[in-house]
Amino acid sequence: MSDQPKAVAAAPRRVSEPLYTPEQRQRRDATVWTLVQGILAPLQFVVFLVSLGLVLRYMATGVGYDAATWSIVIKTAILLTIMVTGAIWEKVVFGQYLFAPSFFWEDVFSFAVIALHLLYIFGLWFELFSPDQLMLIALAAYAAYVINAGQFLWKLRQARLQAEVPV
Q1: Fewer CB within 10 Å: N-end or C-end of the chain?
Q2: Are 10 and 99 in contact (CB under 8 A)?
Q3: How far apart are CA 79 and CA 69, in angstroms?
Q4: Tens digit of pLDDT for each residue in 141-159?
Q5: In this structure, are residues 94 and 100 in contact, taking their beta carbons and an 8 Å threshold?
Q6: SS percent in the chain: helix, strand, coil, step 5
Q7: What is the reported pLDDT for 8?
């Protein structure tokens, strides 16, 4: 018996490997789901910025709890929408719904982002936390979202740089 660990099917890709094979790039460019992601991602970011402002306003002044709450609920709905459509995009481009090697760590961290947003929703729905605690959970969710968005922006940059290199 070998002491070597077994390979994981969806292991993260190596840095030297391109994000997309030529076939994957063609599927990425041909699918409507790329456009959907391209619309939802900036929409989610705008909603995030507005919501962050409302949450910080509430935390600083105690005013605007309802507006902040609704903004977090809307942000969470858009997040869940972009996650479902993103999984469909991944299936079309890479042949699997989640954890394609090119986006393995982004998908892993996305689950932390979703978990924090859903903790807020469940805490709100079941009145598990005080308003201030809920807003702190939202801020933690938003911090995780910023990190995850940065991961995806980095991948977008990598894809653009790789597209410039002749194949």
Answers
A1: N
A2: yes
A3: 15
A4: 999 999 999 999 998 888 8
A5: yes
A6: 75, 0, 25
A7: 47
